[in-house]
Amino acid sequence: MNRFMKKFGFIFVLALLLQLTAFPLQFQAAETDAGGPTWVKPVNYLALGDSLAYGISSEGMPGKGYPDFLAQSLDDMKMLSASNKGFAYPGFTATDVLKDLNDNVTKPSAGIHQSGQNIALHQAIQDSTLITISVGANDMLKHIKIDPATGVPQFDMAQITSAIQQVGMEYNQILKAIHEINPNVQVYVMGYYNPFPTLAADYQPQLAQLLAGLNGSIQAGMQGTSAVFVPTSEQIAKDYKRYLPNPANIHLSEAGYKVIADEFGTQLKATYSWVPKDALTAKLKGDGTAALTWKPATDTKKIMGYGIYMNEELIGQVGADVLTYDVPNLKANTDYQFKVVAVNEDKVASADKPTAKVTTKATETPGPILFKDIQNHWAKSYIEKAVDAGIVSGYSDGTFKPDQTLTRVQATSIIVRTLGLKPTTPAPFKDISHFSEQIQSEVAAASQFGIVYGVNGELKPNDPVTRVQLAAMLNRTYTLVKGKPYVAKAPAPYKDISGYSTEAQNSIAMLHEFGIVHGSNGKFLPGDGTTRGQAAKILVSYSKYLQ
């Protein structure tokens, strides 16, 4: 890789901060230092992961990885406090990173402005404002063997599938552990590229499927966290001969590491909170007043005061020693956006402005949504709760149709909407093309995150979703949200489920132990369809176990 990261990727980052696009890099950095008041804090950067973070070259030698170039670019712009990649190690798996976290290992730091000193991992995380992670590929790669003489790969699909699922669960545990240590740190997770682009074309579809599965599992593990996914596969594939020049080595060239660093830079530009999130806070009081509190800005000049804005309108000014402001008489059921601008003795205003928003409550709480065909239905209260929570909806004719059988595609959409899942790859089913783009996107998300599986490339979208199928889908959402599968305490006491798979029986046992299903006359009736009313009851009852 080149010794210096391409400057333009981060020129735009700083331009975003300063809203000054006409200056070259060195002048922008100077503006940050002395051009006016600021709340921007230099980044304390920690890199975790495998050989890509450590920096192994395409010839297998230690060198600079993508964190080195990312850190150097930040440092060139005087936006780096310190960097440390001392916890990254070649060959590391997700299990290794999780173990380091659990053991709170101590290792020498390795980076800019911080090198050689021993530091415990939890302390390094606590000190960080930015963390990048690249881990998970080694978990899968150890189950892929390539004959060096023939170039023919051997895939242990059972082991690979198990490893990919495990990666997602361990990512969830890793990210939750990080945010327990430091709730404010911003985490960026690297997606992987195809490490074998020179293998014969016959093997590329299978490799693409495995890569999508790995990246999908990583993203599934990120659900419920604030971490940001950084895709890399398309960029590396654009010129793999340059970025992966050694067919016998899966590691990148310097140019390849630069591309990865650029991708992280793009995501930082778009989503990193350069101004700390707690620089300005807004809290509602009971009388319709917003109480604003902010931290002092810094400058080489004396700060003279602050201007307070509401929805882009200046509503007040205070002196430099005042860091609070109350905004009374807010309207009910309204969104308000606030910001604070600092001004120094030269009358230079801060370019970066901390913001906060509040939404006032409605004066009256609207009553539950009612449908004309549920007034005397046994599931009325569950349906109203499900609709109020946005889990299900009624029909345009004012009915809910509680006794209508739920289809596979309807069940899929409901679960995906409940979890807020977004896909990065198209749905692999050939029988859903006649559905809307939104439905196809929801099915794609369900497939990518392992909630539904098809049969011979088909989803069978209009088939009724059976009781056992719905149980399995809910069991998979539990694994997705919690980061680990539910292990039933005992087999479910139903005499008609013995012929079903271990996953199906465990799914039924989970719902039974949660008290969500009870069966009928000692039977679960696994092949029966699920009505919309039954689904509302199940989903409302189940949702509390995902919190």
From TrEMBL:
For whether the record's keyword set contains Transmembrane helix, the answer is: no
Domain named Fibronectin type-III is located at 276-363
Assigned keywords, A-Z: Signal
Pinpoint the SLH domain residues: 366-429, 491-547
Signal peptide (UniProt feature, chain positions): 1-29
Q: Does the keyword Cell division apply?
A: no
Report the InterPro entries cross-referenced here. Answer: Cell_Envelope_Struct_Comp, FN3_dom, FN3_sf, Ig-like_fold, SGNH_hydro, SGNH_hydro_sf, SLH_dom
Q: Which residues form a coiled coil?
A: none
Name the chain's protein. S-layer homology domain-containing protein
